[in-house]
Amino acid sequence: MDAEVLARIQFAFTAGFHFLFPPLSIGLGVIIIIMETIYIKTDNIKYKNMTKFWVKVFALTFALGVATGIVLEFEFGTNWSKYSRYVGDVFGSALAAEGIFAFFLESGFLAILVFGWDKVSKRVHYLATILVALGAHLSAVWILVANSWQQTPVGHHIVNGRAEIVDFWDLVFNPSTIDRLTHTVFAAWLAGAFLVLSIAAYYLIKKRHIDFSILSIKIGLSVAMVASLLQLATGHSSAQTVAEYQPSKLAAMEAQYETGVGDLYIVGWVDQESQEVYGIKIPGMLSYLIYGDTKTHVMGLNDIPEDERPTKINVVFQAYHLMVAVGFTIIGISLLGGFFWWRGELYEKKWYLYLLIGAVILPQIGNQVGWITAEVGRQPWIVYGLLKTSDGLSTSVDAGQILFSLIMFILIYALLFTLFIFLLDRKIKHGPEGVDGSDHLYAKSGSLMSNRNAEEIK
């Protein structure tokens, strides 16, 4: 493999690994605000202990996110120096704003959030909780502003081979920023919610920390139901934006080779040699979803110059369809839980609790394949329509150096992931602070939760 392919693989690996943790921090941030809000209003010690437990999990994900994110900034300079020079003025503003308004806010109040429970007043601690969660969201804002500019670049002009800002707010509110930001943030809420649901379901099955688990599931499931439906709406809006500003990406997402009525594939496989798609499709549905009718034509790949369209069509196609499948699965699991909750049967459905334990992986899969869809679908452009990926590569590093560093990253990240799982497992086994008085009653009765106990916990 040449240096360009290896550099792309290295960045994909390091960015993908990093992207496991910030969504958890963002999602958990929302959930701990909800939990601490209830504690402030009710003064119920159960909510305090619950919040303290999830704060510790939040701190762990935050630490791994910071450690793995730093590497990406160095890669811009080592492997992608021409790209860095081209976008330096644009990215410099966005990433500086992320550092000043987001990272310092988040990290500055993190110590109060984690260690300040008995050292500051309840309201000061509550403020710290809000500011840390806000910082996590603001970090996503500025990173998504920078990345969205790569997808739909505006608010700049080219001077001496560099993109320089002309209008900062045009840059910030470029055509894809809002859609991509909201879609990503709601995906992060789902990652946090399903982590909460998974751990709480595990405790219920093990007949431990019953009050804690039931309250956690109620909050986690509420967030999951809201976020999953909002995710569907923002995903639809994002696809319409892609159709308008990145027609080559939309064509790759549905393997539309010839311009014409757009069919929507439920599942399929792309044969790039014959330009055929084998699978199950709904005729005209892509046109309907994008344009509101089944007759409007969608631009095909063959009407786009070959050197300006993605080469890995099947990769984009499969990643996109897996993302959609995961999204609808998450909606189904969330709404099914809401139905069982409404019926008063949620804690009696042991098979559903097992489902929640395993479902923790779904938002992570959705995040990863969504990112693959966005980034591979943008190729061969690193800045859409302006700079090709091959033109952004550094000339000072060779394939051997990149391969060596990639191997080292794989080994180090494997150790970091092992450490993360080990520490998370310890926190789960230790459980929340305080004595859960329902544990003994739960074990003695042998049932998951009687209606009477459920009402008492309400």
List the helices and strands and how they pair.
Elements: H1 3-18, H2 22-42, H3 45-78, H4 81-115, H5 122-151, E1 156-159, E2 162-165, H6 168-172, H7 177-205, H8 210-245, H9 247-253, E3 260-261, E4 264-271, E5 276-282, H10 285-291, E6 297-298, H11 313-343, H12 350-358, H13 361-378, E7 381-383, E8 387-388, H14 399-430, H15 438-445, H16 451-457
Antiparallel strand pairs: 1-2, 3-6, 4-5, 7-8
For the secondary structure, the number of strands is 8
The level of helicity is: over 70%
Widest sheet, order of strands: 1-2
Major beta-sheet overview:
2 strands, antiparallel
Could you explain how this protein is built, in words?
The chain is mainly alpha-helical and 458 residues long. It is 71% helix and 7% strand. It has 16 helices and eight strands. It has helices at residues 3-18, 22-42, 45-78, 81-115, 122-151, 168-172, 177-205, 210-245, 247-253, 285-291, 313-343, 350-358, 361-378, 399-430, 438-445, 451-457, and strands at residues 156-159, 162-165, 260-261, 264-271, 276-282, 297-298, 381-383, 387-388. The protein has a two-stranded antiparallel ribbon with strand order 1-2. Strand 7 (381-383) and strand 8 (387-388) form a beta hairpin. Helix 5 crosses helix 7 (177-205). The protein is globular. The protein starts with a helix and ends with a helix. Mean pLDDT is 87; it is low at 435-458.
